[in-house]
Write a structure and sequence with these properties.
By secondary structure, the protein is α/β, with parallel strands linked by helices. It has one domain: Glutaredoxin (3-Layer(aba) Sandwich). It is built from five helices and nine strands; from the N terminus they run ββαβαβαβαββββα. The strands form three sheets. It has a five-stranded mixed sheet. A two-stranded antiparallel ribbon has the order 1-2. A two-stranded antiparallel sheet has the order 6-7. Strand 6 and strand 7 form a beta hairpin.
């Protein structure tokens, strides 16, 4: 079942790249006492994600943070090495590149999709969330395209 606005989001252990390699992080720690935008993509280095979705957040990060957002997080069902390399390739220094390597986060929030047809396996749907101290305030799911979960849409929603 997909999470709903007003829900407290689950605490899941995921990975970010640290100085010594992948490091465990708890989603509850990332969200506690903070206002966060978390957006999810079906895959790092994929065309729509690399040409439009992540670059939009990179470009608008300062404007988004100026509206009171403490952190911008990008997640995908990819490992920490891939997420780190993708973030570096996209100059995403202001974005936390959060690896959901086993899809546990996507499953816990009810936002998986089966991409077995093109042999990508179970991945995350494309969406964006506004999270305030661990509670879901906004959830925009994109069934096709990037319009609802784009940086521009989220910036307008928090303005």
């Amino acid at each position: 079942m997909t999470v709903q606005v007003g829900d407290t989001l689950p605490n899941i252990e995921l990975r970010v790249m640290g100085a010594e390699g992948p490091e465990a992080v708890q989603t509850a720690d990332l969200f506690a006492g903070r206002k966060v935008i978390l957006f999810a993509v079906p895959g790092a280095f994929t065309p729509g994600c690399s040409m439009t979705h992540l670059p939009g957040y990179v470009t608008l990060a300062d404007k988004i943070k100026a509206k009171g957002i403490d952190a911008i997080i990008c997640t995908s069902v990819n490992d920490a090495f891939v997420m780190d390399a993708w973030g570096k390739a996209q100059n995403a220094e202001e974005i936390i590149m959060l690896a959901d390597g086993l899809g546990h986060w996507a499953e816990a929030v009810g936002l998986t999709q089966d991409l077995a047809g093109p042999q990508l396996g179970v991945r995350s749907q494309r969406y964006a969330m506004l999270i305030n101290d661990g509670q879901l305030e906004l959830l925009n799911i994109d069934p096709k395209g990037i319009d609802l979960s784009s940086a521009e849409t989220l910036l307008a929603a928090i303005s």
